Amino acid sequence: MQWSIQQIARLSGTTSRTLRHYDDLGLLPPTSIGANGYRYYDVAALTRLQRILLLRELGVGLPAIAEVLAGQTDDTAALESHLGWLEHERDRVDRQIASVTTTILKLKEGEQLMAEEMLDGFDHTVYQDEVEERWGADAYAKGDRWWRELGADGQAAFKAEAAAIEAGLRDARASGTPVSDPAVQGLIARHYAWVRQGWGGTAPSADAYRGLADMYVADPRFAQAYGGVDGAEYVRDAIGVYADAELA
Questions:
Q1: Residues 169 and 234 sit within 8 Å (Cβ to Cβ)
Q2: What is the pLDDT along the chain (248 residues), one digit of tens a residue?
Q3: Cα dist. 149→41, 133, 146, 155, 156 in Å?
Q4: Dihedral angle at the C-alpha atoms of 62, 77, 234, 198, nearest 10 degrees?
Q5: Residue 54, class by beta-carbon neighbours within 10 Å (0-12 exposed, 13-18 middle, 19+ buried)?
Q6: How far is CA 75 from CA 2, 50, 79, in A?
Q7: Rounded to an integer, what distance in angstroms lies between the CA atom of residue 45 and that of residue 40?
Q8: Count of alpha carbons within 13 angstroms of residue 120, beta-carbon side
């Protein structure tokens, strides 16, 4: 089954002009072009468009989207990564809705307002105490400053790279690829560069990088990104190979 460009524009809430622009950039070529010159799109094209729209909602620019799509060709794995991000955002928004609802009700009833209730779901520094306990107050301050200076576009690109790496590692594990395989080690090299960026340009030592990998396994919040504990153990083992070869 195929849909015309006008149908896709209407269903996706975009415009035919935008879809043609995506084609010009090589992001979304039509599946076929009819005798009337109309562009038509099949299910695979719609899946690709869904990925593009999700990345656009993250604030990722079109050149960066092209790189993400080229680097992660498995639509299912990529969408699973997007789904994890969407579920996280849903939880955050649900907390914000509950917080605002509580504020409205208490204002109407003249009840005392609690700061913890009013600001739940709005604070990006929720892990401050944990970071300071693990790595010190200076590490948190440096990381927080770096994150704010990235701006919306930089933050979105950083998240998109994480999603692409996570999806690639989940896919590699699912296909039974050994952790020492060059393709897996290439993903770990990208992960190391991503971690280094997140640490304000400070390159993690071999021990620090292995410690981060151990945390992925020990903490369910991080393990979830790689498909659970088994996935996190796969990433930990791959990081161990990389640390021995590149950081020792």
A1: yes
A2: 899 999 999 988 888 999 999 999 999 999 999 988 889 999 999 999 998 888 777 656 788 788 778 877 778 877 777 777 677 667 767 776 777 777 777 677 776 656 555 555 555 554 455 555 555 556 556 666 777 777 777 877 888 888 888 888 988 998 899 999 999 999 999 999 988 887 777 788 888 888 888 888 877 767 777 888 888 899 999 999 999 999 97
A3: 40, 24, 5, 9, 13
A4: 20
A5: buried
A6: 19, 10, 6
A7: 9
A8: 15
The structure's pTM equals 0.50
Dihedrals phi, psi of 59, to nearest 5 degrees:
90, 10
What sign does the dihedral 147-169-160-24 (CA atoms) show? positive
Written as six digits, the tokens of 188 are 């770990």
CB 43 within 8 A of CB 6: no
Element holding 190 (H helix, E strand): helix 182-198
Tokens of 2: 């195929």
Tokens 């304000």 correspond to 200
